[in-house]
Structure formats: structure tokens, C-alpha cells
Design goal:
heterodimer, A: alpha/beta, two-stranded antiparallel sheet, 6 helices, B: alpha+beta, Butyryl-Coa Dehydrogenase, subunit A, domain 1, Butyryl-CoA Dehydrogenase, subunit A, domain 2, Butyryl-CoA Dehydrogenase, subunit A, domain 3, 3 domains, 4-stranded antiparallel sheet, 3-stranded mixed sheet, 11 helices, about 50% helix
Amino acid sequence: MKSLVCISHVPDTTTKIKYDAAGKGLDKTGVTFVINPYDEFGLVRAIEIKEKTGSGDVTVLCVGGPEVEPTLRKALAIGADNAARVDMDPTDSRSVAEQIAAYAKGKGFDLIFAGKESIDSNGSAVPGMVAELLDLPFISLATSLEFEGDKAKVSREIDGGYEKLESSLPLVLSCQKGMAEWRIPNMRGIMMARTKPLEVVAGHPMDAYVLTKKLELPSAKAGCIYVEPENAAQLVDMLHDKGLI
Amino acid sequence: MSTYTYNPPDYYNLDDLLTEEHKLIRDAVRDWVNRRVSPFIEEWAQNNHCPTHLIPEIGELGLFGPQLPREYGCPGLDQIAYGVIMQEIERADSGLRSMISVQGSLVMYPIYAYGSEEQKHKYLPKLAKGELMGCFGLTEPDFGSNPAGMISRFVDMGDYVVLNGAKTWISNSPFADIAVVWAKNEAGRIQGLIVERGMEGFTTPEIKNKWSLRASATGELVFDNVKVPKENILPNAIGLKGPLGCLDSARYGISWGAIGAAMDCYNTALQYAKERIQFDKPIASYQIQQKKLAEMVTEITKAQLLTYRLGQLKDQGKATTAQISMAKRNNVDMALKIGREARQILGGMGITGEYPIMRHMANLESVVTYEGTHDIHLLITGMDITGISAFR
């Protein structure tokens, strides 16, 4: 099975978010970046499939500048075979999807994995667009992937339960928790990662479809006022004073 | 448990000196510690439980003997990578770091450095995976700082030797499959032997009721006419240089590990001081607490720079025993003092298992004593600069 895993380079989940002075991007000072956790589910499942079948390979792909390469190296350390970086500043979902589709086209991938969303901009749009651009079937929010003959058997989460689906290959999947357990790269994997290929591909020249005009932090929460249960009258007075009732 | 998050200090941007590989290694071990150790370590320590169930995954991660070559099933990392691994493990607990560094530096290293090819191929791959665990026997009940006086002895019986004696304060001894034991031959020269569990006359009683390193198993090694095959003698070490070479490797790891414990105490105290309100202000706003915290981060930064440079020297094969002694002594003492100050910042909460400080403090009381006491290391520096031994 030949797999492509699309990876986003995102701030660690514990990052305190600050924006740059222009309010158009993240202030990256002191920020640790990681593999988008939902993408990592797809990455580990792709590696498991390769390990189980004993054949095939796993390529990881990220659209971004040289700063994303440590994230790709980590994916190689976890067990991917090859990495590719499309050298382009990722601006919006559509242009990222077009870059991924252009890279994948004609390379014969049986499976294209991505996360259900990236934890930075939470667009949830790229994998569906990639499927459309490559004219492939797409299953979102996948929680498991098995095979029966030449068909993929996929579970996905729906309201109150799971949906069991069958699809032909090639197939595009967006993954979420349940698809696989996260893996911590071992020392041998980290040492091997340095010798695995990391290809840099020029991005297709294109204009962004959507431009970010301004990023703003949510306004600070107002302080809480606690009213004792026996002081209901005080609460009513306060709401009156604020014109809320 | 407290809800504090680990945010280690890097005041002099030491990260910029680390390679991407070092950072990947550091972050992988930190991630493993966060998931598999930190949530449980307090309970293990309170219950005097050594987490031997982690051994297979520690082996799978490649943390046993990570600095040894790949031809023996090890990852072949450099010394700074080995250091950051020890730092991250000891951030969790000195007892766990002791288990791992005994295996790597005191069992695998002597087999690698002084063993025959047959011994290396027989033992190292299994030790690297954690399929075999080892311990190291040098200290005796009456010979601690003076190991040359040891009384354990073996006599030549033709195909085998017969070993008699006893070793004490041995990390991993209660569960170890093999022991690298240092004893005198009939000529009175110290040699290393690999003693295997199950050999008749070899027992490993546990030392109980410790107030320190409670998540690590410590014991004795007792040899009562143990027949050890001659092929188990390490052929390439004669004299005290053999065990002291192992201790150089282990002490280097300790000098990094102590920084991990110190960073955990500092990080906890800093966060607590900013959150704890007294007299309507966070206690971090008072000069006396700021003095403590500022001195802590200064000492941690100095220790980080010391070990980083020592790592460079070790990678170049230039680090001396005396330089390693200085780093071990300085950094463990630094960590112990930070533990005590951090405990004070947390007030009464500092003595509870809600926070890691009291456990680190108690652990470091062992670390400041084992692998060369605080005082002996100072005398090694003294001997190095004057050329005169003050302890013989």
C-alpha cells in the first residue's frame, strides 16, 4: 500500500497564542511546533498498515517553508519512509489543497491521509478539497481503517454512533482519535531519520484565494461575581442595575 | 495531583546550541515521561514500587545504553544526546534515572569497553532491549569511598573461578538478571566478572525502608562460593581503572540528570509563587521569594552551560575524570539546594505528594552521596589542581 500523509506544522497545544504586530500572523517567538495531532493518527495508521503487510511505503508531505522540516523529520523518525516539503507559505485551504493535489497527481498513492482539522486554523477543509481536485472518494472523521480484498472498510463517527463504510481505492481520509495510538519516536528511528530523503518541491505559483485581514484574540473575560444561594434578591438587584431584566 | 505544567527554563537559549536531532530526542523522552511516568511516579514512590513494567518500553525507545554503538543493538547517540535523555528522565525521578543509567553506564558500558567480542554480542543487544537487566557491584559494606580496599575475591579453579564477598547499595540488584561485579584475583588485582542470577551461592537481598529513591530497587549482592565460568571475566580491565571508567560515564549522566530534577523543582516553585496569594499579592511579588527564584535560575543556567561544555569534551574524547567530578558535585549540590528552597516557597504544600519537590529532595540526598560523595569529588578537584591526594 502506497500512502501519502499530509501534515500540518502547528503550535504545541499548550502554547499561549500571541499575534504579530500587524495582526496577520502568529508571533512565533518561543513557540514549539508539533505535528498536527489529528494528522499523527493518520501517520501512525499508515505506518501500521505498512508494518502489517510488510510492503509499500509512507510519504509525508507538508506545505511550508524550511521551518517545517523538523516536523517532517519527526514524522520520518516515527516511521515514514520519505518526506516532501512543498516550498510555499500556506495561505488558505484551497491553495494548500491545490499544492497537495499537484504533488500527489500521477504518483500512484492508494491512500491519502490527513487530520480531521489542523489545531491552528481549524479549517477542516483541505482533505475534502484534495479528494475533489484528484477526483477521488473521500471519507471524513474516520476512526478506523481496515481492508477486505481491494476495498477499504472505514468507520466514521456520527451523532450517537458509528457509520461503517466501504470504499474503493485510492481513497482520501480525514482522521480523528481512534484511528491509531500516537507513537513516540524511538532513538533508532531518530537516528535513521537523518538518512531518509526529504525532498523540497517548488510550489505552483498561485495567488491566495482567501486572505487573512486580521487576527484578534478573544476579549478578556470579565471577572466573576459570586452570589451566595441565599442572596437571590441581591442577584435580582444586580441584574436590574445592569438592565438585563 | 497539582495541575502545573512543565515549562523548563532555558535562560541562555541553550536550545540554540542543540541540534535538531538533540531536540527531537529530548522532546521524545519528555513526551514519554509526560505520558507514562509523571502521572504515576508519586504513587510509585509513595508505595516504594519500582516501575519494572516500563522496562520493555524503555528498551523499545532505545534509552538503555543510548551512547553505545549500533553494531551491538544500541542507537549510537552522541554524549549530549545521552545527557539530555538523562535530564528528561531525572526530571521525572532520580530513581528511574538510576535504573536506566546503571543499565547503560555501569553494566553495558563495562561490557562494551572491557568485554570480549563474544561477551558484547551475547549481552549487549539483550541489555539494550531490556530483555536482560543488570546491576553493578563495587561498593562493599566496609569500602565505599575507598573501593581499592575491597575484600571480595575470586580464586582460579581451572575452568571456573570461585567468588566470595558481598556488595551493598546496589541499584537494580533485587531484579537484575546479571551483575557486573568487581573483585580481586589471587594476585590482589581488581577484575570485573559477569555473575548471572541463578548461579549457586549468589543472592540479592533487598534494602528496605529507604526514605529516598523509593521508586528504585536497591539491594545487596552476596557471593557464597559462587562458581563463575572463566568466559564471564571481562578480559580488558585490570585494576581500579576499570570500575572508575564506568563511573566517569555514569557521573556524566548524573550531572545532566540533576539539572532535570532542579528544573522540575524550579518550575514548580515559580508557578506556585505566581499563583499563591498572601497579603493580597502573589508571593512571587515579594523580594525574598524573587531572590530565591532568581538564584535558582542562575544556578540552573550555570549548570546547563557546564554540562553542555562537558558533553562537547566527552564527544571529543577529552573530558577528564576530574572535570566529570566537578560537574557531578556541582550539579547535584545545586539541585539539592534548589529542592530545599523550592520546598520552602511551597510552604506546607511542599511536603505533600501533590507536588514533586519533596520526592526530588529526598532522592537527591542519595544522588549527592552515590557514585562518589560530594566531599570526595571536591578532593578529586583538589588533587587535580595540587597534584597531592588528600584522601589516601
